User: Fold this.
Amino acid sequence: MLEQGVSRIYGEVPEASNGTQNFDDDGHVKRTGTMWTASAHIITAVIGSGVLSMAWAIAQLGWIAAPSSLILFSVVTYYTSGLLAACYRTGDPITGNRNYTYMHAVRSHLGRMNANFCGCVQYANLFGVAIGYTIAASISMMAVKRSNCYHNSGGKDSCKMNSSVYMISFGIAEIVLSQIPDFDQFWWLSIVAAVMSFTYSAIGLGLGIAKVIGNRMVKGSLTGVSIGVVSETQKIWRTFQALGNIAFAYSYSMILIEIQDTIKSPPEESKTMSKATLVSVLVTSIFYLLCGGFGYAAFGDSSPGNLLTGFGFYNPYWLLDIANVAIVVHLVSAYQVDCQPLFRFIEKVAAQKFPDSDFITKEFEVRIPGCKPFKLNLFRLVWRTILVICCTVIAMLLPFFTDIVGLIGAIAYWSLTVYFPVEMYIVQTKIRKWSTKWIGLQMLSAACFVLAMVAAVGSIAGVLDDLKVYKPFMTDY
Assistant:
């Protein structure tokens, strides 16, 4: 997700400036964004933890279905992003009222009920993402520990360890960081997250290429993991789950309206945004194909759920350590930024319900030597701690990275990337019901809904299958 400015994604409208600069038609400081800046924002937002499971997803589908699926998802995402871009302004595409966030666009086109549904999906998605981040961070922390253990023992020690300890450590860090007011306003977080995500993605790609060269062969098959390596039932569920993992990698529509709100006009913001989306979808799709493809070519049927932990026992171990530390640093900051809208939503509702409660509204100053007084709110302390604990406990009970990623992708992709853009576009352009274009858009939405349900079922089946051999809090890896 795009860390910078994430507070505006979930319904918070920026205030108009009263300075002396030039203003746009809505009274806000004149926007200066271009196609290239918008493309950079999207690419920075997209290249992230989703790339880690791409090799595993390609391994389940094989050399024919996997690239075809990636291309299909990229085409659908580009098309629906264009529909969404057309909904940035309500009514006239040049002079209509601007929608500053995804949720505002849904409200202005489809009404409050749909906006509430949209909000529920977004907040549920954020909760799931926090669980996925906890799992991914613990896997990377274990990979660092295991690679050093294996290196120091000369390969004699199996170096098994329990993931619960690392998840608890990550959770404690997030509890502490969650108490920082306005954490998402730290602009440098976006830069840190972008650098870290590109670092570990580039290392993963480089190691994949190196391993293929070292193997002197390209592993993998046209149909993916063979029956025998997995059962026929597992093959079906994993295929569905792989589609969810690919969907997760393309689930970034909720940030597009906010990025479009940075673009200058003329020309129409929607035209510039469509070009930016095309560039970013091409770049990210090529990157996914390269990272996932070389990962599959390197490992074949044994491609790991997390690409970088699959190299854990091999040299150069220090390079793997750098990559996994980069993942942890990225996820520590991304967890906080992505959870800020959820934190604030509950706190805002509580303050409206109980405006006279000191527990909810009052802030206490805690003096820290050498620092500014820290503002402590008891409700914030309790509520945010409970949320982080819940995410951590669920992650400890279900520490299955690819399953969780697939489920999140299934939930978010259809609703946020397809359904709402299609329905808003129909309203925006006044497409007549039962017309050829209306039927075509509804068929696209229905097909993606079926695909999302299939991916969700596959991910849930994967969780149930993993639970047969996993004992919570006890299983070592």
